[in-house]
Amino acid sequence: MNKWMYLNGRIIPENEATISPFDHGFLYGLGVFETFRLYNGHPFLLAEHLKRMQVALSELNIQLTLSIEDMSELLNELINKNGFENARVRLNVSAGDGPIGLQTEPYTNPNVMIFMNSLPVATEQLSSKTAILLRQRRNTPETAFRLKSHHYLNNIVAKREMGAGVDAEGIFLNEKGNLAEGIVSNIFWVKKGVLYTPAIQTGILNGITRQFVIHLAMEHGILVEEGEYLLDDLLEADEMFITNSIQEIVAIDRLEGVKEFNGVQGVITALLFRKYKTLREQLFTMSEYPNDCAE
Asked: CA-CA to 170 of 20 to 30 Å: which in 29, 235, 248, 252?
């Protein structure tokens, strides 16, 4: 069965989608995307994803305003066409057509695409993976901060190093040797009840789930420290977990060949997963998060 997508004002079958070879998203990598999850038809943390994309579009000089109202309407149309209520959504904006050569003027006619893929109902149980320290280093951002952009070669090279398996996540160090992030995730660890995560200044993507987990932890009295950390700091930890919008919170049971962690038995990891699970089908922004929610 063919899936439906949104492309520049129309909802069409995916196999009918085309863009011009003169799109500067294709020619020069000028494009950004957001990936988020639908739970029973609800786009989780949609406002935060759109806010981050708006900042990235401004950085790339792409003129486009994405309202939560318009996006919600489009998502409802796609849900009805595809019949998906639990799905992965990718919102993609590329610069649009231009002459060959580097353009300094704003891009005023970008290509806007929304893809939707069915997902199983979200798990009720905390799962775990193995972490593997990568030889490939995390590259530095091409702007003042990392965008969720089409520039993905660093991640692809790291994934080739890891192989095609899905039961492990590769962990980057940055060029200074500091802990950075996973190939498709942000990383956290717990030592003596304190939650640690690399700071944005290490060159990582400021993940939406990363931000939400920090918010959850602080609301529940967990001290959160962001900074520049070495591998030795991680090796002193009791718990480690990774986050992203599709996998949510995943416990790490070991850093292969180096360190064992508490995995799904980690107290803080399990607490944060329970809180996340309670809230994931509700529509709210982080500023509206109900901190008195039940377990």
From this structure: 29
Phi, psi of 9 (to 5 degrees): 95, -5
For 275: left if phi > 0, alpha if psi spans -120 to 50, otherwise beta; the answer is: alpha
Six-digit token pair at 168? 């492990």
Q: Each residue of 58-90: b (16+ CB within 10 Å) or e?
A: eebebeeebeeeebeebbeebbebbebebbbbe
Read off the pLDDT band of 288 (50, 70, 90). Answer: low
CA distance 23 to 97: 4
Name the residue among 61, 170, 41 with its Cα closest to residue 116. 41
Q: How many CB atoms lie within 10 A of CB 35?
A: 17
Angle at CA 224, nearest 5°, toward 135 and 130?
35
* Sole residue written with tokens 């294709």: 26
| CB atoms near residue 47 (< 10 Å) | 18
pTM: 0.94
pLDDT for res 86? 95
Give every strand in the sheet of 31-39, ordered side by side. 10-13, 4-7, 111-118, 87-94, 31-39, 42-43
Sequence-distant (≥ 6) Cβ neighbours of residue 50 within 8 angstroms: 34, 66, 67, 68, 71
234: nearest Cα among 273, 272, 180, 183:
180
For residue 52, which phi and psi values (nearest 5 degrees)?
-65, -40
Distance CA(286)–CA(129), nearest Å, equals: 27
